[in-house]
């Protein structure tokens, strides 16, 4: 009864410890349930045949190739930016000195070269 009638605004450390243990047990239980649900949802599609698997791998490889080619093109464009494009360049398709369009076409050209 002394604990409930104490008005010192102090909480015994044992009470805080018990509270932490209960919170950590509840959190651990919830995380374990979420992990089990996630694992069961990932294991439902087990009837994938070889052609579908090969197509998925090919799509993933192509996406990775395009990503790396784009990063290499952006790196090159950052190192050597074009401010005044050449009107006779193969990347200047409109014939007008449009820097944004030139840079887009130049990036596409570098990506194509890298992917080839």
The H-and-E topology, N to C, reads as HHHH
Number of helices: 4
Q: What's the shape?
A: elongated
Separation of the first and last Cα atoms: 81 Å
Task: Tell me about the largest β-sheet.
Answer: none
Q: Which radius of gyration do the C-alpha atoms yield?
A: 31 Å
What's the number of extended β-strand segments?
0
State the share of residues found in helices, binned by percent: 55-70%
Q: What structural category arises from helix and sheet content? A: mainly alpha
Strand content is: under 5%
Poorly predicted runs of 5 or more residues: none
Output mean pLDDT. Answer: 83
How many domains, as an integer?
2
Oligomer: single chain
């Amino acid at each position: 009864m002394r604990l409930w009638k104490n008005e010192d605004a102090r909480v015994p450390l044992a009470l805080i410890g018990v509270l932490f243990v209960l919170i950590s047990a509840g959190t651990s239980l919830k995380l374990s349930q979420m992990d089990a649900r996630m694992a069961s949802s990932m294991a439902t599609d087990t009837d994938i045949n070889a052609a579908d698997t090969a197509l998925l791998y090919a799509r993933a490889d192509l996406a990775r190739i395009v990503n790396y080619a784009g990063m290499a093109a952006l790196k090159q464009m950052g190192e050597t930016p074009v401010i005044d494009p050449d009107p006779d360049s193969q990347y200047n398709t409109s014939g007008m000195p449009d820097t944004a369009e030139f840079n887009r076409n130049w990036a596409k050209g570098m990506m194509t070269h890298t992917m080839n």
